[in-house]
Amino acid sequence: MKETILLDHGAGGRASHELVQRVFARRLANPVLDAMDDAAVVEVPAGRLAISTDSFVVDPIIFPGGNIGSLAVHGTVNDLSCRGARPLWLTAGFVLEEGLEMSLLEEVVEAMAAAAAEAGVSIVAGDTKVVGRGQADKIFINTAGVGVIPPGVDIGGHRARPGDAVLVSGTMGDHGVTIMAQRGGLGLKAPLKSDAASLHGMAAALIQACPGLHVLRDPTRGGLATTLNEIAATSGVAMELYEDAIPVDPAVSGVCELLGLDPLYLANEGKFIAVMPEDEAPAALKAMQAHAKGGRAAVIGRVIEAPAGRVWLNTAVGGRRLLDMLSGEPLPRIC
Amino acid sequence: MKETILLDHGAGGRASHELVQRVFARRLANPVLDAMDDAAVVEVPAGRLAISTDSFVVDPIIFPGGNIGSLAVHGTVNDLSCRGARPLWLTAGFVLEEGLEMSLLEEVVEAMAAAAAEAGVSIVAGDTKVVGRGQADKIFINTAGVGVIPPGVDIGGHRARPGDAVLVSGTMGDHGVTIMAQRGGLGLKAPLKSDAASLHGMAAALIQACPGLHVLRDPTRGGLATTLNEIAATSGVAMELYEDAIPVDPAVSGVCELLGLDPLYLANEGKFIAVMPEDEAPAALKAMQAHAKGGRAAVIGRVIEAPAGRVWLNTAVGGRRLLDMLSGEPLPRIC
After folding, report:
1. Is the residue at A267 inside a domain?
2. CA-CA distance, A108 to A111, in Å (whole number)?
3. What is the largest CA-CA distance in chain A?
């Protein structure tokens, strides 16, 4: 019989301790976590911190290109990187369903540990709750993160200015379409793979190459279209994009056509949108393309003055249409 | 028809934005959160930070003395306070079940806002996911927290020393027994109420009154017995307690007897265990008792040398027994 998670593992007593020691502590070990106190203690320099949180409920838990554990690390590392912070410390909160296979949990925690090591972050605090069968779906993970913002760096969704160039670091929609294709046993043969990855290295390179960098955002849920709408609204500017210039993998566009999905509205988990003065765009593009995850980086549009909050798409066939936020048919549990 | 949470509210598009604006942003507003970027930015002095996380899955969501929202704030404020930190910033991650009544979510968020205001913390970052019906039970909340530890303060579960006094800040078991009594419609008439409360003020007063304070811990899941076992193990010491001295509310002991529960193993959500040199115990007791939540504070035992990791209970009838960690029958979803 396979070993599974029991309600007792969440009761805070001996079984909880054994679970923590056996599954979590060994894999995620670091001097701060090892103290196993009510809160972790870390040292910081005076200055600005970035703080973020994200809950992950992706279904299926394991998918081509990663699993919910690696995704939970990448997602929060990228949220911190988007403010120009050096990601340093993560927390991890687990909600487990009674009956979850222990080996599955171990696989997820292994992936978290590997992703954290690769991103140079420590998981310094954790928590595990167990709920009864049918009260959660296998495993949900929350990660919160703290990073240090170097002096002089000022990047945020409010800083896009007319005349800025709009870049993406690679192809759009890979994560979203991979998850959707895994559902319901479509049995698609297309070579789909989530792009989930930590982009702290690319962010640091971009900040170095491009001192005027205004905005970095990762277009996750809602995709490129929704995230650009958010930036346009927050900055009080408009944008125009060139459909031809937006990189989409042929396998992704093929499956999108089949499933009736638009890659511009699908989640990405290893891509940046970057906005900077037009004269810095060549250096930014070069910095992205030099990075392992940025080979397909491209300039996809520019920031214009008005009407504030609108994003226009100049289509491949010579038309022009408004690119609205995602609305209507939801894609649940994509991340 | 009552308004409910839809899958669309978690898709990251227009409906998600409307939910954030309508339910969260207005109630939790503060200058850091209002920026609504991928990560929040805050200013810190150089020094030590405490970082913690806790997920809340309590069932029922609303109970005498609070709800899952206020509990999620108190829990993380207390975890930070236990390291001597001044709690400053929280993040909040929500997992919502499709079909959750909007008014219930609003009530929970109101309670979070009130608890945060009372504790002097800002909720600076948030995230909301929605899963399908039957894939979660109404609402789960993760809070992570960051606080600043004043110079010179060094409090942790590893610092208990033989000769130290062991104190609690009030009656044991109130939260746990209140939650258990709410389940299954027992219809008990006993005046039970969760003790859930933020103890940052009491922690600050204790640190002031008691410069040699070694350990502060909040005995949540697993209760007093389990938490003392953890402290004893981490510090490599033993403890002996005086059963007579441990404060338990008569209504709590009555219902515990009825339900076959032991208040020493039940969760508390507004109580501290404090360990300090014996000669500082009177000042510590006075500081706790001067606090609104510390009227029933008491010295309940002392730290002894050996055998390391053991906690002994000198019983009211003159016996002596080992007080082990919680094991066996779990009490699921108590916090």
Report:
1. yes
2. 5
3. 67
Query: pLDDT tens digits, residue range A113-140?
Result: 999 999 999 999 999 999 999 999 999 9
| A324 to chain B, closest Cα gap in Å | 9
Which residues on A lie below 8 Å from B154 (Cβ)? none
Instruction: Answer yes or no: do B186 and B44 share one domain.
Output: no
Chain B partners of A15 at a C-beta cutoff of 8 Å?
A: 327, 330
Task: Answer whether residue A155 is part of any domain.
Answer: no
Q: Which of B109, B111, B178, B100 is nearest to B135 (CA)?
A: B100
Give tens-digit pLDDT for A286-304: 999 999 999 999 999 999 9
Among the partner residues A38, A83, A327, nearest to B39 by beta-carbon distance: A83
Task: Tell me, yes or no, whether A97 and A178 share the same domain.
Answer: no
Which positions in chain A touch B78 (Cβ < 8 Å)?
A: 38
CB contact under 8 A, B45 and A43: no
**CATH number, residue A181:** 3.90.650.10
Range with the poorest average pLDDT among A232-236, A262-266, B164-168, B187-191:
B187-191
Rounded Cα gap, residues A61 and A67, in angstroms: 6
Is residue A269 assigned to a domain?
A: yes
Count of other CB atoms within 10 angstroms of residue A242: 16
Number of domains chain B is built from:
2
Whether residues B139 and B199 share a domain: the answer is no
The predicted-structure confidence for A44-98, as pLDDT tens digits, reads as follows 999 999 999 999 999 999 999 999 999 999 999 999 999 999 999 999 999 999 9
The whole-angstrom separation of Cα A176 and Cα A269 is: 9
The tokens for A91 are 């927390």
Measured between beta carbons, which residues in chain A are less than 8 angstroms from residue B17? 230, 325
The shortest C-alpha distance from A149 to chain B (Å) reads: 9
Is the minimum CB–CB distance between A30 and chain B shorter than 8 Å? Answer: no
Contact B148, B240 (CB under 8 A): no
In terms of domains, do B57 and B98 share one? yes
Q: Which residue has the tokens 């649940």?
A: A332
Structural domain contains residue B334: no
Are residues A122 and A220 located together in one domain of the fold? no
| Residue B141's CATH number | 3.30.1330.10
User: Is the same domain home to B59 and B143?
Assistant: yes
Residues in chain A: 335
Domain extent for B59: 7-149
Q: Provide the chain A residues 51-70 that lie in CB contact (below 8 A) with chain B.
A: 51-57
Helix (H/G/I), strand (E/B), else coil: A181: helix
